[in-house]
Amino acid sequence: MKAGRVTASLPFDPESLPVLGADAHLPAVPASSIDPAAMRQRFVAPPSWQPEIKVERRYIEREATHASVLVPLVLRGEMTVLLTQRTDHLNDHPGQISFPGGRAETSDADATATALREAQEEIGLEPFEIEVLGSLPTYTTSTGFIVTPVVGLVQPGASLRLDPIEVAEVFEVPLAWLMNPANHQRHAIEVAGATREFFSIPWQGVDASGAPRRYFIWGATAAMLRNLYRFLAA
What we know:
Elements: E1 6-8, E2 21-22, H1 36-44, E3 65-74, E4 80-86, E5 97-98, E6 101-103, H2 111-123, E7 130-135, E8 139-140, E9 145-154, E10 167-174, H3 175-178, E11 185-191, E12 194-206, E13 212-218, H4 219-233
Parallel strand pairs: 1-11, 3-9
Antiparallel strand pairs: 2-11, 3-4, 3-6, 4-5, 4-10, 7-9, 8-9, 11-12, 12-13
């Protein structure tokens, strides 16, 4: 086992794992690249780039399932990313921080339709309130979901209605902060005889009541944010 790595069985507490390092040596995405006009242009004429992480090591054997998430960029004075806290009783990724989204249904026309439907069902965000910019390459989770991240701009006045069965809370994080790799932490753990490496992006924010709260963004959500960083920084 390499230094700094921890051996554990599932489930494990990702917040308890040591930080192996961060990426302060990498440049942050400049502010000029994350305003609405620049974001639109980036998806119209994308650069040559490769996602940093595409597939997690599988530890659950089951049939692969297609899914989509919406990466909602809220058009505030400082653009933010809207994230959800999943409820604790869900079968897949309970209690984790995620984008609104879920598995594809046969009635969905495509991956974008899945993301829009799921955002409407989970947080009440209506499709007409979202300007879809495009999508990032798929990301395959350790639980067998092949996820398409669909990026969209959302007006700050959009009214949200949370599905209490699936969503415990929503919150926003400044996009510029998330696009600074100095805030991206690296971890590793031995699970079932295999090494799983992952990012975390802890955010010190406030909850709905205004009380300070630490939000631990990790796993697939952090990895897709990291891929968004690579896309915008290319």
